[in-house]
Amino acid sequence: PIVAKSDDTIVVAIAAMMQNQIRNLPGVENGVVIGMICMREVVTQLTTLDVQYFGLAGIVQDTELQVAERV
Question: Other C-beta atoms within 10 Å of 42: how many?
């Protein structure tokens, strides 16, 4: 199943949703669903972040590294 673990970063969750073409992703901790991550909520939260703290290059690099680790 496609899920986000409670210790995954939001970047990992976004990558999983994009790769699997899904808009909702269950969050799981110890095998129990603890919530749902919705693409709309993710986009809303990301648009409020100050890019100067994260920089797009850092976000892209982090996504590539996290996805590579999960494959």
Answer: 17
